[in-house]
Design brief:
about 325 residues, alpha/beta, eight-stranded mixed β-sheet, four-stranded antiparallel β-sheet, globular
Length: about 325
């Protein structure tokens, strides 16, 4: 991997919550992200995958300091973001941007597309004339596949895919180094998803972007990610290259996620189902307020043993670039 642009060390994000019916009793702790560490190199795409409720979005927001970490460090170009003042962090926002899941909900309906895209320039205090700012907006609109003639239209006048292009243009106009893509295609039609993913890949190539791509859709992640981090109940189950995760997963949870991806070939689908080792995902996702002891995946794991109930598995290196947190990894 390239020299890390971003390094996350022992990140924890806990939220105090009151249990249902507890009244004024003691608060419980929701462990949204629990001791997560990883690195991302310049120009790389790290896919972060897992079921809904596993902490993927919270992890992405914590990296950007949009959610306050409870513990751990986030090092950006070697600098600990947690030690920066509000003014210093505001200036860093030009380097760290986000694309949200719901394209229409993330856009202010009272603002035109041009004003929405230009907003980060104003927030960063860039001293541009009106003509200079409009030229920047029109240029980035063209790069994301939007006609500059649409600059004065409002969000409700655009399709979902066009709204997401506006959101991407808003993130890109300040020329960031890192963009967190939080489920950026999950609310779009299947026919539009590939277009948005290809757009992100083109922008990555043209601008040298580093991406954190959060998704529950492994077929999309396979198309864009260089490496993949598998998250379950706030903990890292496995991390490795795209080929390592898809061709030789070591964690039963990773295997189950891959097996759940439908195949366009019915015969191949049946063959895959017949040869599954994990048995597929069974049961419901436990509550992050009351996670299982030991390995958090053990209540749904076909390989769980007494050891899994008592000891939390730590990430260990299985081979170069491939780590797994499992007491009984797949062969």
């Amino acid at each position: 991997m390239n020299k890390p642009l971003l390094r996350v060390e022992g990140l924890k994000v806990y939220f105090p919550v009151r249990r249902s019916g507890a009244g004024f009793g003691p608060q419980a702790t929701l462990k949204a992200v629990d001791d997560v560490s990883f690195e991302v190199g310049r120009g790389e795409t790290l896919g972060i995958v897992g079921e809904s409720g596993c902490g993927k979005s919270t992890l992405g927001r914590a990296v950007l300091q949009l959610v306050a970490p409870s513990a751990g460090r986030i090092l950006w170009l070697g600098n600990d973001l947690g030690t920066l003042s509000k003014a210093e962090m505001r200036r860093k926002r030009a380097e760290l941007q986000i694309v949200f899941q719901d394209p229409l909900a993330s856009l202010d309906p009272r603002m035109t597309a041009g004003d929405i895209i230009a907003e980060p320039l104003i927030a960063q205090g860039q001293r541009l004339s009106r003509d200079e700012r409009r030229a920047r907006v029109e240029s980035i609109m063209e790069k994301v596949g939007l006609s500059p003639s649409l600059i004065n239209r409002y969000p409700h006048e655009f399709s979902g895919g066009q709204c997401q292009r506006i959101g991407i243009a808003r993130a890109m106009i300040v020329e960031p180094k890192l963009v967190v893509c939080d489920e950026p295609v999950s609310s779009l039609d299947v026919s539009i998803r590939a277009q948005i993913v290809n757009l992100l890949k083109d922008l990555q190539r043209d601008f040298g972007l580093t991406l954190l791509f959060i998704s529950h859709d492994l077929s999309v992640v396979r198309h864009i990610a260089n490496r993949i981090l598998v998250l379950y109940l706030g903990r890292v189950m496995e991390i490795g290259t795209r080929d390592q995760i898809f061709n030789a997963p070591l964690h039963p949870y990773s295997r189950a996620l891959i097996d759940a991806v439908p195949s366009p070939d019915p015969d191949a689908q049946r063959a895959t189902e017949g040869g599954r080792d994990s048995g597929g995902l069974k049961g419901e996702l436990p509550s992050p307020i009351d996670p299982p002891s030991g390995c958090v995946f053990r209540t749904r794991c076909p390989r769980a043993s007494e050891l899994c109930a008592t000891d939390i598995p730590v990430l260990r290196v299985a081979q170069l670039g491939h780590e797994v947190a499992c007491h009984h990894p797949l062969d």
